[in-house]
């Protein structure tokens, strides 16, 4: 995977970001539906977190439920990184809309970064473009 997929401020989280991108590529290759999920690393143990669903599309409240599950799992952890991953449609000022995966990355100190990974569908899967980020101060 290209190193350009990791922004300089996310280098410490590169391993877990690569895992999430690889999972997204696999899922988007075989399905038009991308359910929200989370990747959580607690003391170097990586876990994937999902919400149960039998629907054909993501339903209301899935992201909030994932946030709750993340917080429950890392309540006693000293070192943790979580990625909440969900799909979005991004409207650019200079071009039409683009499909994207959004990663909300949270470190042990509770600092959040929202990173957008635009992608296009290719004949043999998907192609992710260079990500960009939005930082929010708490």
Overall description:
The protein is an alpha+beta fold. It has one domain (3-135). Helix content is 21%, strand content 38%. The protein is built from two helices and seven strands. The protein has helices at 14-30, 62-73, and strands spanning 37-42, 45-49, 80-91, 97-106, 112-122, 125-128, 132-135. Strands 1, 2, 3, 4, 5, 6 and 7 form a seven-stranded antiparallel beta sheet that branches.
- What proportion strand? 35-45%
- The general outline is globular
Q: Which sheet architecture does the biggest sheet show?
A: 7 strands, antiparallel
Q: Roughly what percent helix?
A: 10-25%
Q: Please give the radius of gyration in angstroms.
A: 15 Å
Number of helices: 2
Rounded average pLDDT:
85
Q: Can you write the helix and strand succession as a string?
A: HEEHEEEEE
User: What are the low-pLDDT stretches, counting only 5+ consecutive residues below 50?
Assistant: none
Distance, first to last CA: 32 Å
Count of individual beta strands: 7
Structural class: alpha+beta
- Number of domain modules: 1
């Amino acid at each position: 995977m290209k190193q350009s997929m990791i922004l300089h401020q996310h280098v410490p989280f590169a391993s877990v970001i690569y895992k999430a991108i690889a999972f997204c590529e696999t899922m988007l290759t075989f399905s038009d539906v991308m359910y929200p999920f989370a990747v959580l690393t607690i003391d170097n143990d990586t876990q994937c977190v999902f919400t149960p669903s039998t629907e054909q599309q993501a339903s209301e409240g899935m992201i909030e439920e994932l946030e709750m599950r993340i917080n429950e799992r890392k309540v006693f952890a000293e070192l943790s990184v979580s990625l909440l991953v969900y799909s979005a449609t991004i409207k650019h000022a200079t071009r039409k809309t683009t499909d994207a995966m959004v990663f909300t990355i949270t470190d042990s100190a509770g600092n959040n970064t929202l990173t957008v990974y635009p992608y296009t569908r290719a004949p043999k899967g998907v192609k992710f473009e260079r990500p960009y980020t939005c930082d929010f101060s708490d």
